[in-house]
Amino acid sequence: MRLQQSLIDPCGGRSSGRPLYGFFYLIMTYEEQLLDPRWEEKKQEVFEYYGAKCCYKCMSTKRIEVHHKLYYKGRMAWEYDVWELLPLCHDCHSYVHDKVPFTQPYESIKQVMIRLFTEMLRKRRNG
Prior knowledge:
The protein is an alpha+beta fold. It has helices at residues 30-35, 37-50, 90-99, 109-126; strands at residues 2-5, 20-21, 24-27, 64-68, 85-89. The chain contains 4 helices and 5 strands. Strand 2 and strand 3 form a beta hairpin.
C-alpha cells in the first residue's frame, strides 16, 4: 500500500471505502483488495445472492471465485453490486479472462461474448 494525496476534501464527497488520513488516502493493489475483509464479505453476499457456492457456468463446486462482469476505474473490489459479480470456478474464470479481452473500458461480459460470437459467425460465413 502507498499513500497518495487527495485532491478532494476527505470530509466531503463520495465515500469510496478507503480509509482516509488527513488529506491522504491509501492506494491498495488489486491483490491487496482481494485479501481485505470487505472483499470476503462481498463474496459471501454474492454466494447468497446466487443461492449456492457453485460455478454459474458449469455448476462445479471446486475452487469457486467471484468474477467482476465489468470494471470501473477507481472502484475497490468490494464496491460493486452483487449483480455485477458472478461466481465461477477457477477454470471458467481463467477461460473468461484468457479468451474474453476487455477492449472497451466498461464493456460487460455479455457484450463481449456477443461481440466475439458475432465476429466468429462473420468469419465462418466469409470462409
